[in-house]
Amino acid sequence: xxxxxxxxxxxxxxxxxxxxxxxxxxxxxxxxxxxxxxxxxxxxxxxxxxxxxxxxxxxxxxxxxxxxxxxxxxxxxxxxxxxxxxxxxxxxxxxxxxxxxxxxxxxxxxxxxxxxxxxxxxxxxxxxxxxxxxxxxxxxxxxx
Length: 144
Known about the structure:
Layout: H1 8-26, H2 32-36, H3 43-70, H4 73-101, H5 110-119, H6 123-141
Helix pairs in contact: 1-3, 3-4, 3-6, 4-5, 4-6
């Protein structure tokens, strides 16, 4: 798609999404828990809350990117189901393994570090976007 065909709103939404994804990465050590709860002193709860907030923000912004880039509900629906799977299934499993093996420290073993990148960072969504682009490219070049 040429730059002339991309409306200004789409460019703004894409730019804002990338800006906020960058800011979430830069401020990844922020304690979001302390912004809402002051009296609770449970390191595991703080760890889980902060990672969950990052997952919600990262995946929400990626879903905005998917909607803006592809403009097709089918892609957004797939991204939403991936997001729900991450949030409901994979994230709790990560928390159980991480907190049992290493506690709430930010430093992880190599294995858990890779899982952390896939879950808390928006890597799965970025991989999904590459797959969507490949699918669109393949379908466009193999039309009957």
